[in-house]
Write a structure and sequence with these properties.
Elements (H helix, E strand, L loop, with lengths): L1 E7 L4 H13 L4 E7 L13 E3 L14 H7 L2 H10 L7 E5 L2 H10 L4 E4 L18 H7 L5 E5 L8 E2 L5 H4 L9 E4 L5 H8 L7 E5 L6 E3 L2 E5 L2 H9 L3 E4 L4 H8 L3 E4 L6 H12 L13 H9 L12 H12 L2
Parallel strand pairs: 1-2, 1-4, 2-3, 4-5, 5-6, 6-7, 8-9, 8-12, 9-11, 12-13
Antiparallel strand pairs: 10-11
Helix pairs in contact: 1-12, 3-4
């Protein structure tokens, strides 16, 4: 059997999930990997057969997308050309983790594909979503369409939705609490964060920033460039994680039993939905409308957080079902 696994390269969650799924797929046949987009700090262990430009959003420094840089990277003629280069009919199964080039190639050529992603869960009306007429809802629906969907979310909201894929390196961590707080907010400049965090001097902060190339210390705040190994070490031993409204990062913190505070990116519909779901669980959120972050962060630091999430290791069973149900 030949399997094509197409992966979105923006952000770390898609790549992190793929690192767990690829070895499971390889038990069923030959797996070719396709990645489009940029902005990921985590790399695949396996070789990538197709590296495409795709459509990626570029992280800004003020809590949202850098629209100008995002617009500059878009190249529709290249997108159309790349769609035609993928030999879709060579494969018995095409899996897509929110990757647009393969998704639209399949759609235009009438080839079936399986959307295997967190975003796939939003096909269900049962998934918590804030009331919104945001145009980004259309992006969620049409960015990477598929014939079938298998989704992941914080809870099994529907019969095709499963709990998060937690990386083996996270599941096997030795967890402790050294009292510090870990911070990963890729759309926020560390120069904005540090002055706020310094106003809570009793806490040691470990900030991982996409916007610095050097490590430095400013009072009680340690800032480092993003590094997967160092971040995992920080997360394993922290009191809590302050992060964006992504999916895998918060899921890993919840799995490890860490306190969690999220600040979803402005005008990023998926992150707004994730934060809305977490809010329904009673977890704190800093929304784009919150201009004064300090009281929210202080309240989070000074109060315990009681939550229990059960994320069983069911990835192998999910992949087995996908292969049996959809391979041709």
């Amino acid at each position: 059997m030949k399997i094509l696994y197409a992966i979105q390269g923006t952000g770390n969650g898609h790549i992190s999930r793929a690192r767990e799924i690829v070895p499971l797929l390889q038990k069923y046949g030959e797996v070719d990997l396709l990645v489009s987009g940029t902005q990921a700090d985590v790399k695949l262990v396996q070789d990538v057969k197709y590296q495409l430009h795709g459509f990626s959003f570029i992280f800004g420094k003020k809590g949202g997308v850098n629209h100008y840089e995002t617009w500059k990277t878009m190249n529709l003629p290249r997108f159309m050309k790349d769609m035609k280069t993928i030999p879709l009919k060579d494969y018995n199964l095409i899996l897509n983790d929110f990757e647009p080039v393969t998704a639209w190639a399949c759609r235009t050529q009438g080839v079936e594909s399986v959307g295997l992603s967190h975003q796939a869960s939003f096909q269900s009306r049962k998934v918590p979503k804030p009331k919104s007429i945001d145009w980004a809802q259309l992006v969620m629906k049409y960015y990477a369409p598929a014939s079938h969907y298998v989704g992941f979310h914080f809870e099994r909201y529907d019969d095709f939705i499963y709990t998060p894929v937690i990386r083996a390196e996270i599941r096997n961590m030795v967890v402790s609490n050294l009292g510090h707080y870990s911070v990963y907010l890729p759309a926020i400049d560390d120069k904005f964060l540090v002055p706020i965090l310094k106003q809570i001097p009793q806490v040691k902060w470990e900030v991982f920033s996409k916007h610095t190339k050097i490590s430095y210390m400013d009072g009680n705040v340690a800032v480092s460039p993003v590094n997967n190994e160092l971040f995992n070490k920080s997360l394993a031993s922290c009191e809590g994680l302050f992060t964006g409204g992504g999916f895998e990062g918060p899921a890993e913190a919840l799995f490890l039993g860490k306190k969690l505070l999220v600040a979803p990116m402005k005008f990023q519909y998926e992150q707004q939905c994730n934060a809305f779901a977490l809010k329904k669980f009673g977890l704190p959120v800093i929304w784009g409308s919150n201009r004064n972050w300090l009281p929210i962060i202080k309240n989070w630091v000074n109060n315990p957080q009681e939550h229990q999430f059960h994320f069983p290791d069911e990835t192998a069973a999910v992949i087995d079902k996908v292969v049996k149900d959809f391979a041709r």
